[in-house]
Design brief:
This protein is α+β, with helices and mostly antiparallel strands and 98 residues long. The protein has a domain of 62 residues. Helices cover 18% and strands 39% of the residues. It has one helix and five strands; from the N terminus they run βαββββ. A five-stranded antiparallel beta sheet has the order 1-2-3-4-5, covered by helices on one side. It is globular, with a radius of gyration of 13 Å. The two termini are 19 Å apart. The relative contact order is 0.23.
């Protein structure tokens, strides 16, 4: 994978779901709401000084959120961070850099 350019969109994996689950509470706190449905649908990765992971998440009622999760380099020993997110997304909305 080239440094700087996001990967192609790929179907979500068990690992993608695990990452989404780890930042779910951060999103719920920022949005002041609970998500009963929180299913990772697809993702992209971008190598930076660490890793940006863009995840499209189905939150039920045909609504989606796009998450940008930052994974620090292993030696930094830092937790996953929800760096940014977009709400009011739909199934057909492309996962792009934000």
């Amino acid at each position: 994978m080239m440094c700087g350019a996001p990967s192609a969109t790929m179907p979500a994996t068990a690992e993608t779901q695990e990452i989404a689950d780890k930042v779910k509470t951060q999103l719920e706190e920022k949005e002041n709401q609970k998500f009963d449905v929180f299913k990772a649908v697809s993702f992209k990765k971008q190598v930076v000084a660490g890793l940006n992971i863009f995840i499209k998440v189905d939150v039920g009622d045909e609504k989606y959120v796009h998450l940008r999760v930052f994974e620090a380099l292993p030696h930094e020993n830092k937790p996953l961070t929800l760096s940014s997110y977009q709400t009011n997304k739909e199934k057909h909305d492309e996962l792009t850099y934000f």
